[in-house]
């Protein structure tokens, strides 16, 4: 006989510090629903319109998105899923073996907090839909603070629900995504079709002309070219694929080929959904309200709730709310694993509740959602190079005579080679970005490659000295 408490512990057992057993492995169908639900999500209602504010051209947007998302899928399949299925460890436990307990704590704190901020932006998105019946003012592109007590209450309620779902563990997160993702995909397609009708578009040429050859960016935005779109769409999820965060997800996969299921998220979410959301914003830009805001030299808001409601009514409100939930759920789950790695004796349930609380507080402030393009680029740039340490060890350590999982085998708590490799690569390319005004997504791959190479070089030098 078991108590209710023991049942809860068993229900949320996530194998944080051991290999996932064969009996707990899942088929590709489990990941298909999760990725479709996570990436056809509330934030897509923000990102699509933001592409219009950057003055991007039709070719740069449509072709750039297609190729950038393809590169992301390839990274998930041949890097993340391959390593995850072979080793079946969370990102955090794997890094602890390489970096040492003390060093990885700093990474886990940063990783968990950044995931919480990202989840917070998704809670903000859902709140813009629930706020419609209450007739609350919607966040503007330059808003940073909440606009009233009603907004705060709505965010707190949404955050509590999302946190409870995420705290139930991966199995629950996956089930929720599978149940809701078909509804969300249908909603995005419906929004796109309705928006095409509202724009009186009946031919591909008319559709193409929405973006045409591009335009000047809106006030406060930068101009996007093909390379901005291609690299941003490739690296907007850099922390998850080349940054290896999704080791924690794909460790449950039976085969590495499950990595291909990420295409459901990339092409349904990061392609169809972004374009559909951009069409909704194009409809709004023709309204007297938006034209008046533009005439004053300001950028019209991109609040997802009203955009979807104007297209498909109450169905749009429900879609935005659920889309925010299905993305925030796995994001808070990842953040909970990061915090749990810091305090391994703590219950995964309660550390995930903690992560959800931080995300909810972040969701109160609309700045994270309204500046999503820049924030996502920064968060990928910070976290991705750490994944290079895992990738380069996995593929090249033996060839270069470097000991894998060195901190664990040497019994050290602080592997200086990891800190130096990340610090040099991050510091160098972030300085270039600030001093030369280079968009961060242009520098994510060079920083990732440099970090991996430096880690092998420094590790070989240190380990050779220690052996002598």
Automatic annotation (TrEMBL):
The keyword Mitochondrion does not apply. One of its GO terms (molecular function) is cytosine transmembrane transporter activity. InterPro entries: CodB. It comes from Portibacter lacus. The chain crosses the membrane at residues 61-85, 106-129, 149-171, 183-204, 224-243, 264-287, 307-328, 349-370, 376-397, 409-432, 438-458. Keywords: Membrane, Transmembrane, Transmembrane helix. This is Membrane protein. One of its GO terms (cellular component) is plasma membrane.
